[in-house]
Amino acid sequence: MGQAAPGRRSFTFRDMCLEIGDRLQIECPASVAADRVFVRVIGYVEPLSLLVTAPMHRGKRLNLVEHDTVVIRAFSRQSAFAFRASVLRVCKLPFEYLHLSFPQAVQGAVIRKSSRVRTQMAVDLSNISEGELQWHTASIENISSTGALIVSDKALGSKGEMLRLNFQARVHDVDMPLELESEIMSELPQDEIGATSPERKYRCGVEFRNLRPSDLMVIKGLVYQQIIENPHSAI
Predict the structure, then answer these.
(1) What is the C-alpha to C-alpha distance for residues 130 and 161, in angstroms, rounded to an integer?
(2) Largest CA distance in the chain
(3) Does residue 116 sit in helix, strand or coil?
(4) What SS3 string covers 144-164?
(5) What is the pLDDT of residues 51-99, one digit of tens each?
(6) Which domains does the chain have, with CATH numbers?
(7) Cα–Cα distances in Å, from 223 out to 76, 89, 232?
(8) Would residue 78 be called left, alpha or beta, if left means φ above 0 and alpha means ψ between -120 and 50 degrees?
(9) Residue 103 has what pLDDT?
(10) Model pLDDT for residues 202-228, shown as the tens digit of each residue
(11) β-sheet bridge partners, residue 73
């Protein structure tokens, strides 16, 4: 896991509040075909072993063997956690599951309501305030549950104007379509960025408006997933 990132600190196993059925991400050794997959907690015996379902990829069990070292990541109660474990036993009866070493050192970070993560997602957008919708494609550079930073090759509008955003948020390998209203909070024109033509870009900070509960859940899921899978993407 390397050196702890800013805002990260040590936790105990009990701080994670794991329950039977909770979903964990497991990062496998380089020798295994799939890098990161998900498993579920089926039990634990403190301080001896954590039991999880066998990691699967495309319908096949990954070939983890005893003494392999894995990295486990979890999200619970507004915090993201990570710890190393070794495979103690690969069990096949009465079903396939793993005994992992009980976590000794758990690193984590509290996820604030406005936690923001770096991302690169294509977004189709239009300025609602201009009347007739004229769509063009830009990129979401980072996102939180309250807003986003958009990078575009053209000016998107002035502070206070409204944009309509259409993009796909990929959460747990499922593409979730989102159509959101947002208000421009800041606009940094190309001559203040320092890039040279034709690579000049506009960066536009927006806040989401009138979010439906279902849309908010998708965005939070995207942010939490990014923090768990790529801790250094957190801003």
Answers:
(1) 9
(2) 65
(3) coil
(4) CCCEEEEEECCCCCCCCCEEE
(5) 999 999 888 889 899 999 999 988 766 678 889 999 999 999 999 999 9
(6) 8-110 (2.30.110.10), 117-233 (2.40.10.220)
(7) 14, 33, 12
(8) left
(9) 94
(10) 899 999 999 998 898 889 888 877 877
(11) 25, 82
Sign, CA torsion 22/6/114/136: negative
Contact predicate 167/123, CB 8 Å: yes
- Buried b / exposed e along 179-197 (16+ C-beta atoms within 10 A): ebebbbeebeebeeeeeee
Closest CA to 111 of 63, 67, 77, 155: 77
DSSP 173: T
Q: Which whole number is the average pLDDT over 188-215?
A: 75
Please provide residue 221's backbone torsions phi and psi, each rounded to the nearest 5 degrees. -60, -40
> Which of 62, 69, 47, 58 lies closest to 96 in space, CA to CA?
62
- pTM, full prediction: 0.62
Q: Which DSSP category does 225 fall into?
A: H
Residues whose CB is less than 8 angstroms from the CB of residue 211 and which lie 6 or more positions away in sequence, other chains included = 180, 219
C-alpha triplet 61, 67, 68: angle, nearest 5° = 50
Alpha-carbon span 7 to 111, nearest angstrom: 10
